[in-house]
Amino acid sequence: MNGMKHFFYKVTLFILLITLTCLLTEYFLRRIPNEYTLKREYLDKNSDSIEVLFLGGSHGRSGFNPVYMTKRSFNAAQHSQSLDYDFEILKKYQNKWSNLQYIILPISYGTMFSKLATGPEAWRAKSYIIYFDIILTDNLRYHTEIMNGILGTQFYRLYSYYSKKIDEVNCTDLGWGIANFSNDLVKTGLDAAKRHAEFDDYKYYKEMTSILDSISSFAKRNNARLLMITTPTFISYRENLKKNQLDLTINAARNLVNNNDNCYYLNLFNDSFFTDADFRDGDHLNANGARKLTLIIDSLINQGTITNKFY
Amino acid sequence: MEIISIPFAAVSIISIFIYYLLEHKYRTFFHLFLSLGFVASFSRNLLFYVLIYSLINYFIGLKLQTSKYKKTLFGIGIALNLLQIIVLKYYDFTIGPVFQLFSYTSSISHLSELIVPVGISYFTLQGIGYLINVKMGWEKSEKDFPDFLLYMIFYPKFLSGPVERSNHFLPQIKKGNSFNEQKVAEGLKIALFGFFKKVVIANQLSIVVTSSHTDLELYSGINLWIATLIQPLYLYFDFSGYTDIAIGLAKTFGIDLLPNFNRPFFSQNVTTFWRRFHMSLSFWFNDYIFKQLSFRFRKWGIYASVFAVFVTFSLFGIWHGAGWNFMILGVLQAFALNYEFFTKRQRSEIFSKMPEFLRVWSGRLFTYIFFSLSLIFVFSPDLESSLNYFIGLTDLNSGFDLRAFSLRSLPALCFLSLFLLFEYFEQDKDKIYNKIVKFWNYHSFFRISIYYIMVILIISQLGEKLTFVYQAF
């Protein structure tokens, strides 16, 4: 019995040591400033003064630069942010959108067919859980930083911030995703087209359509307009898409516009105004392209009342 | 409940201490409680099914001891065992096509969706093995149903073995044992190494192996060869990881499960390989199929063994899955074994002229390559995919493309090299091995530091790909 007691204490001590290590690592990882903390803090303080809110995935993150907007705007888009997360962000501040006039939502080739928490980038769900209190998955792993990256990566993150003072914020103060690089447009376009078409029988289409509907109703309740945009893409991307999937995407937006008087749709998928110099890869705009796109949106909004439903 | 999870680890550790606080007469029930809970966590239907299945084998076993109609009863028992696995696992491969010929559709095919037969390949072999042991008089039938049920569903081994033998397992749970710190610590150590092998090594290699079978455009030529050669390492660390968890946990309770691996990649021929890889399964097939067939057809002389090897390994292959690619896996092994048997003398003559180092390592290399190529049939979803994979291997114009390999597999390759190096020392270099063991046992601070680092590495990679390869069988 004494032997077992003694062993029990040793095991308990070992487990406590492990737990302490994990808790400390978790604590210090969570203190590293990142885009999610920046956007959360901004929305917490300023959601009641935002007039134009940009949402969506990486196409929105890199495509909309609020600095070019006349009205007070903020980009709350994130990599792989799916419609369900867009809606949760809106709901999170539902009592605070007192000045909201426009919700700008990218409707991209993969938007209607994927969910962040079940896709290849599901690990990003942890950022929503930890930094936004948005829980759309019951996978306990996504409640921690430490279980979402190999140890080497986690230590590198800690070292980069606490030793070299390099944080993980890669966006401007207004949320536009900074991208100081460019890739082979042809190759990245082809790779992205293939990646965005790997969906299983379009099983989320119905659900995403329903969420889109909910977003439009939310906008209406808040006296705001919903402007859906299919952002410009490079030729190598758009010419390698599955027609059926593309048609379903565009039709989802068009149907919403037809059924809701507060919804509008701007399709710039194949717009010749955007040239090679406006892309950083096959499906994302660079700084110049973001400026162009944002100015287009700004001029549409500044017309006062958007009269056309489709552009 | 997933085995690779913090809740499972927590429950296991707590249960060790509860186990030794209980009196011996309650320990089986405690284990049954844990095991039934474990099975129920997959499916309540499965729990109900396993209880019924165990009851049937239990009663048949009892009756076999006393009945006048031993042969008939035994035949019924074996037939029931085979029927249930055929219906639940092999329906699409056996009964389904026959029904289709007569344009008949049956709802039996949905049974496997209802019952979710996790572990069926393992507990079926255990049930059959038990009935054979009783019938042949190798052991007495088990009168205590709780003990028998525990033999069938003991939770550390329920999912993927080892394939236990009733006459090995049952006596152990009947004898009482007191807390032994050394044994418990050893068991925890083995289990920890098992978690490490699975989470830190096998999970990272799985990215390469599964991608190579789903993305043949990215993997061709040299890349595909590298992925092919990684397959055995992935399978070994995945499966031996699970086995270590099962054996380690059982050891903490004073129960020794049958070993499953014995440095298989240091085998110099396929015959030896199958005595060292998934040993509990290969020995089961050897004792209950091969030996029985060889004896029954002994009048055929040497061809009895040839026949027995083909039948045994065909069944061995099909045991892994319901598909022609698994059958081919088995047949390939049979060809290799028979080839080695019939050419033993000639090969000995050739190899005796070679330096020992060359002889040993060329044998190991060829055995490893043969196993690597055999595994194509295991990881491919069907026969056509297997053939396409082999065609991809012949395309040697494609150069090496680093994009095909995740950077995350590099640390895994480093860690597995350490494990294999240790096995090599254990196999060939006694002195170095003994020195390492002595150092390990003597320096407790170093030992605990390594355990600490291993646990942190495991936790940081938990949650990725939780199931084991052999769980699918």
**Gap between N and C termini of chain B:** 18 Å
Radius of gyration of chain A: 22 Å
Runs of chain A in which pLDDT lies below 50 for 5 or more consecutive residues are none
Secondary structure tally: strands of chain B: 0
Order of helices and strands of chain A: HHEHEHEHHHHEHHEEEH
Helix content of chain A: 40-55%
How far apart the termini of chain A lie comes to 80 Å
Major sheet of chain B: none
The coarse silhouette of chain A is: globular
> Which chain pair shows the most residues in contact?
A-B, 23 and 21 residues
Oligomeric composition of the shown chains? heterodimer
β-sheet strand percentage of chain A: 5-15%
| Fraction of residues in β-strands of chain B | under 5%
Number of domains of chain B: 2
Helix content bin of chain B: over 70%
- According to CATH, the homologous superfamily of one domain in chain A is SGNH hydrolase
- Give me the CATH fold name of one domain in chain A: Rossmann fold
Strand and helix map with partners:
The complex is a heterodimer of chains A (311) and B (473).
Chain A: H1 2-30, H2 35-46, E1 52-54, H3 58-63, E2 73-75, H4 83-92, E3 102-106, H5 125-132, H6 151-162, H7 185-195, H8 205-221, E4 225-230, H9 235-238, H10 243-259, E5 263-267, E6 279-281, E7 284-285, H11 287-301
Parallel strand pairs in A: 1-2, 1-3, 3-4, 4-5
Antiparallel strand pairs in A: 6-7
Chain B: H1 6-21, H2 24-40, H3 44-66, H4 70-89, H5 95-101, H6 111-115, H7 120-135, H8 145-153, H9 155-158, H10 166-174, H11 181-214, H12 222-252, H13 270-273, H14 279-296, H15 302-320, H16 324-342, H17 344-352, H18 356-374, H19 376-379, H20 383-394, H21 409-428, H22 430-442, H23 444-460
